[in-house]
Amino acid sequence: MQFSQEEPNHKISISKFEKMLKTNSLLFFDSEEFESIIHFYLNNGKVALAKKAIKLGLDQHPASTNLKLFKVEIYIFEGDLTKANQLLDELHLLEPTNDEVYIQKANLLSKQDKHKEAITFLSKALELSQETSDIHSLIGMEYLFLDQFENAKQSFIKCLELDEFDYASLYNVIYCFEFLEQNKEAITFLNQYLNTNPYSEIAWHQLGKLYYALKNFNKALRSFDFAIISDDTFVGAYIEKGKTLQKLKKYNEAIENYSVTLGLEDPTSFALLQIAKCHEKLGNNQLALEYYYKTVHEDPSLDKGWTAITKFYTKQKNYQKALYYINKAIDLDSENMAYWKLYSNINLRLNFFEEAERGYKRTIELGDYELETWLTRTDLLIKLGEEETAMYNLLQAMEYHPENAEIEFRLAGIYFKFNETEKATYHLTNAMNFDKEYLFVIKELFPMVTESPLYINAVKKFTL
Predict the structure, then answer these.
(1) Core-most of 54, 82, 279, 317, by most CB within 10 Å?
(2) pTM of the predicted model as reported, rounded to 2 decimal places
């Protein structure tokens, strides 16, 4: 329910009402004053005070439909849907043409996940109401609940036809276009919208993001420029422009745009991180490191900041520092497969084989089933003298990479080492049939095996 009460009178009503509560006195308010007071409290999340105002309002104006509708809102908010439904049925009998009754009924049905029925009631409210923009928006939301994105899109477009500055509906329209994978249609829609609203920074911003998604970076850049012209304090536009300039490898200009955002609001870790990456691309390593450190200082919980520092030191071949910082990232997100992979690679560079093996094991547990991961872990286990664990690792790998020569040669080598000739010969035969070029694997991992008569005789069968 919307109110047009002037601000001074509005404040007077609130002050008068709160004074009445403090002094435990009883003052008279007309029903519209009560509606304004209740609306104020609900908008500010002061439900207890809203309930007091509803009770006192109905004591003084027991026939007021609008006050009863506020009571319905409270019932719905508190989850007492039975009482809300009963009161709405009573109000419908009294005022069958009151659009707000249908809106609240729809709200009640929506809470019960009866979205189709809610749309039916909202459609009836449309017939009765003179202010239809908000109702179209509610219908659009119900269609979203039903995953009917085309219908939702049309509802939000109607909102914009009635109120071109309804930016919430504009965002929702674009969301529907994107979900329907209608990016080109969304671009056409926004260009038409901008023909009549050329200074809409929101529309230019959304248009730029769509061009960016289609990798049309020059048009994206132009759109973000217009968004900034429309509102030179629009932080989001500077951020997106910076991202676009990075894609175009215009790193100095990207830094300038990210730097603008630092002056418009509190520094964000995202902007600081991107500035660091741009400096690194430009070869300004000291500045890059400075901004990487600023990133994690601004947001110590940002694991991406710690991994960026890790990768920086890895490129510099300073593996000790890289290891320190990847451990920071893992402490923040121990379920991140990529972090464990990086951890493993760094430990491998440092010849910390046990730690590297532990890392590769964890990456596999988290879903990294790449052949290279299985093989590297296997080779580490063999190096550590844990051939039996290596064997089980390879048997698991076969589930994801069947008929793979590299796996089969390693299994053959392990079984030859264990003197399990039958199994060794079986896997060697498989390996030679798949790709005999990888025979060198056994020599590299099991040099002693290649000197045994059993191995030599088995290989001869394939070389004769």
Answers:
(1) 54
(2) 0.73
